[in-house]
Amino acid sequence: MIKRALISVYKKDKIYELASFLNSMGTQIISTGGTYKYLKEKGIPVVEVSEITGFDEILDGRVKTLHPKIHGGILAIRDNIEHMETIKEKGIEPIDMVVVNLYPFFEKVKDDISFEEKVEFIDIGGPTMIRAAAKNFEDVLVLTDVSDYDDVINQLKEKGDVDIKTRRKLAGKVFNLTSAYDSAVANFLLEDDYPEYLSISYKKEMDLRYGENPHQSAAYYVSTTEKGSMKDFEKLNGKELSYNNIKDMDVAWKVVNEFDEICCCAVKHNTPCGVAIGDSAADAYKKAFECDSVSIFGGIVAFNRRVDADTAKELVKIFLEIVIAPDFDEDALKILCEKKNLRVIKCSVKPCQKFEVCSVDGGILVQDTDKVLIDNIECVTQIKPDEKYYEDMIFGMKVVKYVKSNAIVVVKDKMAVGIAGGQVNRIWAAKQALERGKGASVLASDAFFPFSDVVEEASKYGIKVIIQPGGSINDNLSIKACDDKGIAMVFTKIRHFKH
Ligand SMILES: NC(=O)c1ncn([C@@H]2O[C@H](COP(=O)(O)O)[C@@H](O)[C@H]2O)c1NC=O
After folding, report:
1. Which residues are CB-neighbours of 28 under 8 A, at least 6 positions away?
2. Which one of 182, 405, 476, 477 is at 20 to 30 Å from 167 when CA atoms are compared?
3. Among candidates 18, 315, 60, which has minimal Cα distance to 145?
């Protein structure tokens, strides 16, 4: 039996329904200022907290419920005779239910308001009350999530009480929420990129059908406070997204956003398989398709420009999993939506990830994202690269950055005609890329050459320019091989390993 419930909610949705149900059960409702006013206006009998505490809300609401008359009523263990005698002596009455939703710090921290204003959205009294109720969950029912109201109402209707399993789950939800809330506050206040404790604050966006493989369970969580392209997008058509879809879409979107020119990127198995710059979205797509017309089947295709009907007509010719772009012309959308399963994603947020995490058994690795493409370009060979290859060199470096190491990309006229990666040595990646990208003039590598073998292989395929970070103790071997073969080679001094 819920004799007394304390309701203190920032967002008032569904609170009238819950309060009127409690009222119909004979529960006494206690509320803080705003909630009190809201319920009273709706005709629900309600007692103001200050009437219980004998103390007005002070300090602009910073102190409302922080009082022994409230916390004693929540924390007293009903089976503990001493506890019950103490609260009786002090004139404290038990509180059997606490309903709270917190100040919207997650939302407000992103808003364009001052630091001081953001600080005022750090809820103190709310977390204190719900933590207290959660600690005493066997005696005090705690509700922080509107989606739990119906279950609690139904149980109270049917049994007059709520079972212990539900009480415990609701208590667990409290600490799950307050830890994410506190993490968000900690990240807001701390200026340390790598603080003593890793505070992460992510909210479940959706349960996924499965993880990387069908026998693995999975869910997708998004940051409670940070913006992000893989969070702030709109799905305009198609089946639900999968675990692999989200990972692949992330790479495809990051690749196209490396470029100011019109770019299209196709991704398979988390690796770009076709990337090209074009005069239009359709042209870029046709060229990306040409890079590797085999692997693109079932791929994820990204554009950094609006997709028009001409492009859509090309896209629907083969089976694709996802098309992501900043926008779609109406007629393009119509064409794409004819394919019921094709996920069409509109995303206007540019990639803005500050840190990357990767988990290992018992730990999490955190690093700054790879944001620097090139330190400075230094030609290390006698032959200097012809200026006409400059754009292809930069293009190759931008693409190879997203290919798993060891990675080699060969380029022809701003098309990645040969992409090879994920090899345990560099020569295998080079051989694959060169074989696929016959006729290419530029070769880009994610890291230095330990031997001269890549240069020798490149010369067999007529490569004119090699761009790579440099920095091997054997750099002189590759430089000499380039000089012997008439290839120009430049160093960038920035490695782009991707493990
Ligand atoms: N200071 C307190 O004692 C306190 N007690 C409850 N709150 C919060 O006040 C909000 C509700 O306020 P109101 O009913 O006045 O609209 C809730 O989000 C609740 O979490 C408090 N506010 C912040 O710390």
Report:
1. 3, 4, 5, 47
2. 182
3. 18
* Residue 144 vs residues 53, 66, 102, 169, 182: alpha-carbon distances, Å: 23, 18, 8, 11, 15
- CA-closest candidate to residue 404, choices 269, 227, 229: 269
Relative to the CA of 127, which ligand 1 atom is closest?
Answer: 20
- For ligand 1, atom 20: residue with the closest CA: 126
C-alpha dihedral sign at 70, 73, 77, 83: positive
- Helix, strand, or coil here: 307? strand
Taking only the tens place, the pLDDT of each residue in 168-214 is 999 999 999 999 999 999 999 998 999 999 999 999 999 999 999 99
Ligand 1 pocket test: pick from 8, 101, 181 the residue with the most ligand atoms within 8 Å of its Cβ: 8
Task: Assess whether the C-beta atom of 32 lies below 6 angstroms from ligand 1.
Answer: yes
In the structure encoding, which two tokens stand for residue 64, read together? 């409302």
Query: Is residue 215 among the annotated active site residues?
Result: no
Q: Going from the N-terminus, what domains does the chain have, and what CATH number goes with each?
A: 4-190 (3.40.50.1380), 233-367 (3.40.140.20), 378-491 (3.40.140.20)
Centre of ligand 1 to C-alpha 70, Å, is 13
* pLDDT interval class at 442 (50, 70, 90): very high
Q: In this structure, what token pair is assigned to residue 146?
A: 């509107």
Write out pLDDT tens, residues 12-37.
Answer: 999 999 999 999 999 999 999 999 99
Please tell me the distance from the alpha carbon of residue 255 to that of residue 236, in angstroms, as a whole number.
22
User: Of ligand 1's atoms, which has the minimum distance to the CA of residue 7?
Assistant: 14
